[in-house]
Design brief:
The chain is α+β, with helices and mostly antiparallel strands. Helix 4 packs parallel to helix 5 (377-388), helix 9 (536-547) packs parallel to helix 10 (567-575) and helix 10 packs parallel to helix 11. The radius of gyration is 27 Å and the shape is globular. It starts with a helix and ends with a strand. It binds (2R,3S,4R,5S)-2-(hydroxymethyl)piperidine-3,4,5-triol (DGJ). (2R,3S,4R,5S)-2-(hydroxymethyl)piperidine-3,4,5-triol is lined by residues 317, 347-348, 395, 463, 465, 510, 512-513, 529, 532.
């Protein structure tokens, strides 16, 4: 046994037992942050600090133990919102949790897993808190496991993933809300005493109206570069809940987890109830740093293949909708090649025969190629695309069914719906009952059959166009209140299976806009669809919103015909993430086509900086009638700046913008790129020091409406 392993084992053993007489302190540490627990009176686990690390570790001993119970139980002395509420097998509705032991395991140079076990002194019932600290990214991931050995099931009513306490003067909450086509609108408000809840009850997907992400600023409102805050998110693709409660002493507790709404869970003896992860970062330098921490974490741990390149594509949805055939598609393959993108993505409408998928009221569930539209099937399409030099990808929505489908006729018992009420449709469809293992096989089979028959498929778009209403699972029978939780866990089972067999296939997580964007699902996906709204102006706000928590490499931004803005504006907006097209290329003028070809080539030159660089949001569209942001690569020798002028009023004047994230000592050439017809940035081609760019700044914005500028900033030696 190596010396290190020996020492590690020794510390694991000592942590819980041999040093029982010493005051117990558990540190969860990242590069700049520490979350500190200690064991207080009555063996209670207490959060005694969360914030920047102290210079002198010895001073942690001076922190008062306080009363911030790490995981608040219900039914005994607590008078506020609990983290956990249960009913024991003997119907006793109370829980008491006392520290039992903890373990710290360094998983590698970056990641340390700390577990703290607590037990009820009266019942064989235990709760273990898990904390994964990502040192370099300054991110902490938390979840909980609940288990018991009582004689009969225990009913769980509340089961938080995380409980964090704060004692600031004021609290400012930034939430992200919206609806279909208006996702991720930012709203900031001061929390007042009592409870503020942000939650969702959509079942199949986390967000649409409220999103499972927030900033919580302490003392003062924070901005991009100043202010103390945490950025938090729940990795769960179903009902979530964040509870912010300020008590009579102005202390705040934030409880995050699955929404307990209609979800009492009967936990059998010896079974483990595992909550989803709450992921957060603490920043004392504003929202910009918090986002960069999240992005770095996500690229390494939160999304699939976050360090690998992505494919540019042409999608046919807005060009053809359901109306296409082999000939039309062949023309679109040509267009993909003409544009210079990597892949053609065939959207909805390619399947079903008895009830052909010619609009959105039929065919969902019947995943065979439609013979009338595609007599040669998918094989012929792949062959044709490949012959022209394009990869081929395909759309599916495997969790859903139209009542007008063979699947509905064959398996009415596979569908979530109330037995004694009329069916409730959303986009003419219903949700399959994924809690049923046969349905899981079916849904997995949709991907597996496609990939087995057509291994050349290079990309999948996995859509999900509705939430659960009239929720009733024929499979769960008397355990109906398990539906919301079991649905999501079953979905993850399917994703797991899919990824075991197809570990690196690029798959876009789509949810008809409105969103299924969360880190519970994203670890199985390479990218997501932020919104069906692709209007360039709206997208500035939508993508800005997502950029707070999700790295640009995950955000599929397509250039379409939705907006009235110039093609250049829409292209520049799409470029700030993972660029793609969904536009009739044949309607482009020669000049537009040339511009687009050039834009694709530019994007391919700049995409490494955009995907893997650090994001600096310089001017918010919520503050001025423009948005400016930039990405800087790790070596700080390349940066890309995007400036979008929105709708300034007459006489409105834009100040210079100071750049960020560059190396003050380096010299940089600043060149405008993606130019259409005429140059906007008058200093294009000049060389400046990083110092100058960051202290003095540049006039990067055009004054006229809906104009955009892209600057390529390159170190010169
Ligand atoms: C909703 C998606 O957001 C669209 O891009 C498209 O794929 C349609 N579904 C197809 O039904």
């Amino acid at each position: 046994m190596s010396k290190n392993i020996f020492l590690l084992l020794l510390s694991v053993v000592f942590a819980g037992h041999l040093f029982a007489q010493l005051p117990k302190i558990v540190n969860i540490e990242t590069k700049n942050t520490i979350l500190l627990y200690r064991v207080g009176q009555d063996q209670k686990l207490i959060q005694s600090y969360l914030g920047n690390k102290l210079f002198q570790p010895g001073e942690y001993d001076k922190l008062k133990a306080g009363k911030f119970e790490a995981y608040i139980t219900a039914g005994t002395s607590n008078l506020f919102e609990p983290s956990i509420r249960v009913k024991h097998a003997d119907n006793n509705p109370s829980l008491d949790l006392q520290y039992e032991s903890h373990k710290i395991v360094k998983q590698d140079d970056d990641v340390t897993l700390t577990t703290i076990k607590m037990i009820d002194p009266q019942y064989p019932f235990e709760v273990t808190l898990f904390f994964k600290a990502y040192y370099n990214e300054d991110v902490i991931e938390e979840w909980t496991e609940i288990k018991h050995k009582e004689k009969k099931p225990v009913v769980l009513y509340n089961y938080a993933s995380s409980t964090l306490h704060f004692d600031a003067k004021n609290y400012w909450l930034t939430q992200f809300h919206g609806n279909w086509a208006e996702e991720m609108r930012m709203q900031e408000s001061q929390l007042t005493s009592g409870i503020k809840i942000i939650d969702s009850k959509l079942g199949t997907r986390a967000h649409m109206y409220q999103t499972p992400v927030f900033y919580l600023s302490l003392n003062e409102k924070s901005n991009e570069n100043t202010g103390e805050l945490i950025a938090g998110t729940l990795g769960w693709s179903g009902n979530f809940q964040f509870t912010f409660e300020i008590d009579e002493r102005n202390n705040l507790r934030v409880i995050s987890g699955i929404n307990p709404y209609a979800s009492e869970y009967k936990l059998e003896p010896e079974k483990v109830f595992k909550t989803p992860s709450f992921i957060f970062t603490y920043s004392n330098s504003g929202k910009g740093l918090a986002s960069r921490n999240m992005h770095q974490w996500a690229r390494k741990y939160g999304i699939l293949d976050g360090d690998k390149p992505r494919l540019t594509l042409l999608n046919n949805w807005e060009t053809t909708y359901f109306s296409f055939n082999e000939e039309k598609l062949a023309g679109l393959f040509d267009d993909a090649v003409k544009l210079g993108v990597d892949l053609f993505l065939l959207d909805d409408g390619w399947f079903a025969n008895k009830y052909p998928r010619n609009n959105d009221n039929a065919g969902l569930g019947d995943w065979e190629e439609n013979k009338a539209k595609l007599p040669g099937g998918i094989d012929a399409l792949i062959k044709a695309a490949q012959q022209k030099g394009s990869k081929f990808g395909i759309w599916i929505e495997p969790e859903m069914v139209n009542p007008k489908s063979e699947l509905y006729e064959k398996h009415p018992d596979w569908i979530i719906k109330l037995p004694n009420r009329s069916e409730n449709y959303y986009r003419n469809q219903l949700v399959l009952d994924l809690t049923n293992p046969q349905v899981q096989d079916f849904v997995f089979g949709v991907v597996d059959n496609l990939m087995t028959k057509h291994p050349e498929i290079a990309f999948i778009k996995w859509d999900c166009n509705r939430m659960i209403t009239n929720g009733y699972s024929p499979y769960l029978k008397e355990n109906q209140s398990h539906l919301y939780i079991d649905y999501v866990n079953s979905l993850y089972k399917v994703f797991d299976r899919m990824r075991q067999k197809y570990p690196h296939l690029p798959i876009m997580l789509c949810s008809g806009g409105g969103g299924r964007v969360d880190y519970g699902a994203l670890k199985y996906f390479t990218e997501f669809w932020p919104s069906d709204n692709t209007d360039g102006l709206e997208r500035v706000f939508i993508q800005w919103g997502y950029s707070n928590f999700y790295p640009s490499i995950t955000s599929c931004n397509h250039i379409t015909s939705w907006g009235k803005q110039s093609l250049k504006f829409r292209t520049d907006v799409a470029m700030m993430g993972k660029m793609g097209y969904d536009i009739p290329v044949k309607h482009m003028t020669d000049q537009e086509l040339k511009f687009s070809q050039n834009a694709v080539a530019n994007y391919k030159r700049l995409n490494n900086t955009i995907w893997f660089g650090d994001l600096f949001r310089l001017v918010s569209p919520y503050d001025e009638s423009r948005a400016v942001l930039m990405y800087v690569n790790t070596e700080k020798n390349k940066a890309v700046l995007f400036s979008y002028t929105l709708n300034p009023r007459y006489g409105e004047f834009f100040q210079k913008v100071r750049l960020q994230g560059l190396d003050a000592a380096k010299m940089y050439k600043v060149e405008e790129t993606n130019i259409n017809l005429r140059q906007t940035f008058m200093e294009s081609g000049k060389v400046f020091s990083g110092d100058f760019l960051m202290k003095v700044g540049l006039e990067v914005s055009a004054n006229n409406s809906l104009n955009s500028v892209v600057l390529e900033i390159t170190e010169v030696k």
